[in-house]
Write a structure and sequence with these properties.
Elements lengths: L1 E5 L13 E5 L7 E5 L8 E5 L8 H9 L11
Parallel strand pairs: 1-4, 2-4
Antiparallel strand pairs: 2-3
Length: 77
């Protein structure tokens, strides 16, 4: 399962629903891996489209939206 969402639309998503998360530049299909659940095949993927000029701290905002209590330690540096 692959889900593609804009940065503004990830608020209702749950981190437990995905095995991998990528961020993609605006209008691109290529992304950078920012989350990978250990011990799980990457069957459920979320691709987040970034705005044309992403602000500093965008990855932190994504983490806060998807994992506000920081339950997962599978975030990549």
């Amino acid at each position: 399962m692959f889900v593609k969402a804009g940065l503004a639309h990830i608020g209702g998503l749950q981190i437990s629903s995905f095995d991998v998360i990528y961020v993609c530049p605006s209008h691109s299909e290529l992304g950078t891996l920012i989350f990978r659940r250990r011990h799980a095949p990457p069957r459920r993927a979320l691709f987040i489209d970034l705005p044309k000029d992403p602000k500093h701290g965008t990855i932190e905002r994504i983490r806060d939206a998807l994992d506000p209590l920081r339950h997962s330690d599978d975030w990549l540096p």
